[in-house]
Amino acid sequence: MANVPYKIYLSEDEMPKQWHNIQAVMPEVPGFLNPANGEPVPKEGLLGVFCAETIEQELNKTDEFIAIPDEIVSFYSMYRPSPVVRAYCLEKALGTPAKLYYKFEGNNTSGSHKLNSAAAQAYYAKKQGLTGVTTETGAGQWGSALSMACAFFGLDLVVYMVKTSSEQKPYRKVLMETYGAKVIPSPSPTTDVGQKILAENPGTGGSLGCAISEALETAAKSDGYRYVLGSVLNHVVLHQSIIGLEAKLALEKYDITPDIIIGCAGGGSNLGGLISPFMADKLRGKSGTEFIAVEPASCPSLTRGRYAYDHGDTGRMTPLIKMYTLGSGFIPSPNHAGGLRYHGMSPIVSKLFHDGHISAKSYTQTDVFQAAVMFARTEGTLPAPESSHAIKCAIDEALACKATGEEKTILFGLTGTGYFDMTAYQNFNAGEMNDYVPTDADLEKGFATLPQKC
Amino acid sequence: MANVPYKIYLSEDEMPKQWHNIQAVMPEVPGFLNPANGEPVPKEGLLGVFCAETIEQELNKTDEFIAIPDEIVSFYSMYRPSPVVRAYCLEKALGTPAKLYYKFEGNNTSGSHKLNSAAAQAYYAKKQGLTGVTTETGAGQWGSALSMACAFFGLDLVVYMVKTSSEQKPYRKVLMETYGAKVIPSPSPTTDVGQKILAENPGTGGSLGCAISEALETAAKSDGYRYVLGSVLNHVVLHQSIIGLEAKLALEKYDITPDIIIGCAGGGSNLGGLISPFMADKLRGKSGTEFIAVEPASCPSLTRGRYAYDHGDTGRMTPLIKMYTLGSGFIPSPNHAGGLRYHGMSPIVSKLFHDGHISAKSYTQTDVFQAAVMFARTEGTLPAPESSHAIKCAIDEALACKATGEEKTILFGLTGTGYFDMTAYQNFNAGEMNDYVPTDADLEKGFATLPQKC
What we know:
The structure is a homodimer. The first copy, chain A, is an alpha/beta fold. Chain A contains 17 helices and 15 strands. Chain A has helices at residues 52-59, 70-77, 88-94, 115-127, 141-153, 163-168, 170-178, 192-200, 208-221, 234-252, 269-283, 301-304, 347-354, 365-379, 385-404, 422-429, 440-447, and strands spanning 7-8, 18-20, 65-67, 84-86, 99-104, 132-137, 156-162, 182-186, 225-227, 260-264, 290-296, 306-311, 320-325, 359-363, 409-414. Chain A has a seven-stranded mixed beta sheet with strand order 1-4-5-15-10-11-14, with helices on both faces. Chain A has a four-stranded parallel beta sheet with strand order 8-7-6-9, sandwiched between helices. In chain A, helix 11 (269-283) links the parallel strand 10 (260-264) and strand 11 (290-296). In chain A, helix 2 (70-77) runs antiparallel to helix 4, helix 4 runs parallel beside helix 5 and helix 5 (141-153) runs parallel beside helix 7. The longest helix of chain A has 20 residues, at 385-404.
């Protein structure tokens, strides 16, 4: 076998032309329920909210592969395929016999994997003849990605940005505006739900759940608009499967099968997309790969949440979704990994976790940033705080291999770069990082907001 | 011929293992003179200031190719080869028959090509047994790059950062500190020259020339330290030749010879490195490629400067260098393209320009940022203000082709990304950009500071 280079690149011709739909392989993912009566929501009930094509994808439980339209392939070609990188320098610094690989999704201006679904959703919205879309953004990566995609395909865009993030990351707002988006800190007085949340929680820094409610309301009130979501939903996991498909192809060039695959998990789309084709192999008994979801201890939906039907937003406007959740009323503490600050979790990831196919870990911020700085100094790239959760876990696994002498192959998702997260690094450098972990009583308050009927 | 993909990548095996030394091909580049007597500076006179190996490279006028040490090849492999990108989407938006290519150097955490020389200089300093180095940074890209390289090779680093830049880009400072560097806004009270400049110009925002003086003084006063420079000098152009070598190899895969090559020019290292092997072909009569240097109208060393012996720094501590210069006393206005805010120009680029092998253009900021935003919205990547000077010129050339119907092939250097330049984009979005151009009287003040003897 040839020596593995630092970066395994696919050619543009080798870039997958179909997404992988894990729903076709796994046990059935529970669908949306109507909160009023607990009945399944018919497809027609979703058409006023989401783009038509993404609803088809959301509900598709039969086709394992779904063609990527040429226009999206062209857009992907501007920044994909992305490399699988062998972390030789980190391995050396750790003195581990483990082999560490990361799939790097940060080499585009949005700074993360989010562009993979943004391109698809903007394309479908334009094709449907819409004039614009609304969305929410936490860390700002999704909003940046969607701004880029909307500028490219010619769509208007309104972004509700979690207020805490908009204050921590003022330049994210400028970036989105440079691409032509309108950015509103959330909760805001521009919506009924925003006004209500502000009245009930004066001074709140907001959350993804609040911002989703505002974006939903604005889409519903605006002609020719729909709402698009950057994570959680099945069709977003589908779009993100390009990550896993490319990673699998690249590793197979060198006959590599990962023993462990690690991803950070906020809404779950990056993790779901990364593991998708590998999980298919495992569910079919073709591999024994282990999968680990990593979340912040401050927002532990998998490790301390409940598997229940819940709203996807704080304003309780969405249908109910079966997922691991802390309750839609759980407002996470300001945590620098804004992209992981969400009360729920992808129904696909939740189901796989519930069935025992994925395990989960959580870490506090200081530990995560220590890993981030070690990674930056050895591998060069300054990672996003979200991605650094996966790095921390990969380092722990590599050190476990050092202790046992095992030569495991570990693949993790480096979902993005930290160039717009310098306030967080500044706090870490100054030793002023907040390691908040919710108490059981805090969690009970969130669980009390779970719908009682379903 | 096969269709040209969006991105032409070389494999790591194909990455050049030798730098290209244009000095061996071109008419002799004038050497350093002693300002006290106008005599050439002997090699020994430079050993106390610069690393020994880089002095050898600086003065090497005979070897066209110089081997890249394995350790630097390994470092390069973390982020190189970098792609040549076909700007299909920009071409379409312009409706031009021209074929636009850019060599993209921004896909690393320093955000620019600067890492190519930082890696080399940090490696040679460590190999020589030094404990640390000092440097200056303008836009912050060089300081970031050197921080990364010093963290990797295990060297201490003190960075004097132009005060204007450190105020416009606070997060650049945090980035460098995250990699372990000590960052001091310049002019500062930590050096004699800094104190003198502050006394003579209270409230000054500083310049690269000032920061160089401070870094030189600190290196001279610190045991086991040398000074390293991120541009201008011949050995930096040598290290940056990796850009041109890779670009040439990539284009040759598709039988492409550029009609025009365009680069932004501050100190000149990116331009010099990009054109190096192409210029060798031209000087040997093997091609008719045209070369264009692009600079800001606010700091027009090529387009309005004089070809004269001058100091490289404001404090007049360096030997004299024959170059296009505005005078070491010229303090440029605050301009967002901090990396282009330097009174002088690479002696190599200056000589080639003087001999008529390169032409030069200048643009004001608003025009440059209009081009930058157009590029961002069509090609995805948000460019650095410096790089956007080259984009503006490439767009002008492409529009000229549209007018004449010519199908010219244009290659430009996209030296970096603008992720740490959001204050500049914010000003542009708000219509508050400053289009300062120095008057002839302003320039005369600078010229009055040129040494009289040489």
